[in-house]
Amino acid sequence: MLIRENVSLAPFTTLGVGGPARFFAAASDENHIAEALSFARARSLPVFTLGGGSNLVVADAGFHGFVLKIEIPGIRPLSAPPDADARIAVGAGVEWDAFVQYCVSRNLAGVEALSGIPGTAGGAPVQNIGAYGQEAGETIAAVHAWDTRADKIVELTRAECAFAYRGSVFSAAAGRYIVLQTEFLLQKNGRPGAQYADLRKYFAGSVNPSLAEVRSAVLEIRKSKGMLLDPNDSDSRSAGSFFKNPVVSRDEFAALKQKARAAGVIAPDEAIPCFDAPEGNIKLAAAWLIEHSGFSKGYAHGRAGISKKHALALVNRGGASSSEIVSLMKLIQERVAASFGVALNPEPVFIGFETWGFKEKR
Ligand code: EPU
After folding, report:
1. Per the CB 3.0–4.6 Å rule, which of 21, 107, 110, 361 could disulfide with 186?
2. Atom number, ligand 1, closest to the C-alpha of residue 309
3. Are the CB atoms for 123 and 51 separated by under 8 Å?
4. What does pLDDT average to over the chain?
5. Spans in the chain with pLDDT lower than 70
């Protein structure tokens, strides 16, 4: 395995900002991973596992450790027809959307609404990627990972993965596991998920869309929101949603609504968009909160900005620095907190920010 030094990380991220990795290598199997870990341990270097870089913000100073890019290939059916359920193993380095396309073209239901999400299949369980009414954790049956604490390959069941909204045991125990392969349990000839408001609107009037129709609808909707990677669309030079949608209790929701009305942030008869969340809580739309805190789509902040197509994506308009992105992030957090008393938590992973006193999230 080739270990390179001072490799610029920006080109390995969809946001396209940040400095170099002190060491960098690509691993296409477990032996490469073992080699990289022993190299890093011998030098007491932190290791960061890189997938598609679609949910990553790298500091301008770069990362002083070892960046290990996972390129484990392969999509392998583990159960064959006539089974109603299809168990498919996918290598962590496979492009996520190639996997979705594989499933949809074989009429396997369960991931079609996750079409067009950038990144690799290895990132899917880590972040429990979700969109248009589906989450990867709903169809993941098991994850094979390298446990860097025990220094061996382990298999985690769905329950052990502890999937949550945009999180899992893999993101919670940051750095402990390196995902090698994920097994999905999909439904042969199953019905597609099409309950999300945008999809219902898209299919209004037409009944029972096929998996392929849902896939193409999702791709079209994502494109219209700048959430589909396209070199010709600078609105897609982002890390996807930059903030998680905040979840609050019903009491907190009532209080913040009252406060926002009293302060004139919203009109007396204006409703705040809200969605049911687990345990009787309420999920707020971060994009809406941002747009009602003095920002609009297309807002510019140096060479960084807010997407013209979706208020939740921070974009690199060309040549932006990581510090411009982070200062825009902080400005948005401050204004949303001042307007609504709600804390917006960033969704991406941040690396290399230790020296700023900014808490690194891995
Ligand atoms: N809205 C605005 N302004 C905007 C966009 C949205 O006010 O520019 C409001 C609207 O009220 C809208 C609501 O926000 O009804 C929700 O918007 P949308 O359906 O676009 O979804 P989202 O909550 O902003 C989430 C995920 C996306 C996922 C979409 C579709 C999070 C943080 N984001 O976005 O995931 O694609 O739903 O399912 O949960 C990602 O995680 O990177 C990501 C892109």
Report:
1. 110
2. 8
3. yes
4. 94
5. 80-84, 355-362
Helix residue ranges, H only, 106-178: 123-127, 158-161, 169-172
Domain 4-70 bears CATH identifier 3.90.550.10: no
Is the CB of 311 within 6 Å of ligand 1? yes
The residue contributing the CA closest to ligand 1 atom 23 is 285
Neighbour-count burial for 72-91, b at 16+ CB within 10 Å, e otherwise: beeeeeeeeeeeeebbbbbb
Give the ligand 1 atom nearest the CA of 312.
24
CA–CA dist 220, 91 (Å, integer) = 27
Q: Where are the domains of the chain?
A: 4-70, 75-224, 234-351
| C-beta 134 within 6 A of ligand 1 | no
- Residues 52-108: pLDDT tens digits? 999 999 999 999 999 999 999 999 999 766 666 799 999 999 999 999 999 999 999
Domain 234-351, classified CATH 3.90.78.10, yes or no:
yes
Find the 147 Cα to ligand 1 centroid distance in Å.
Answer: 33
Name the closest-CA residue to atom 34, ligand 1.
241
| pTM metric for this prediction | 0.94
Strand partners, 152: 147
Q: Which CATH class is domain 75-224?
A: alpha beta
**CA-to-CA dists, residue 305 to 26, 55, 293, 308, angstroms:** 32, 17, 15, 9
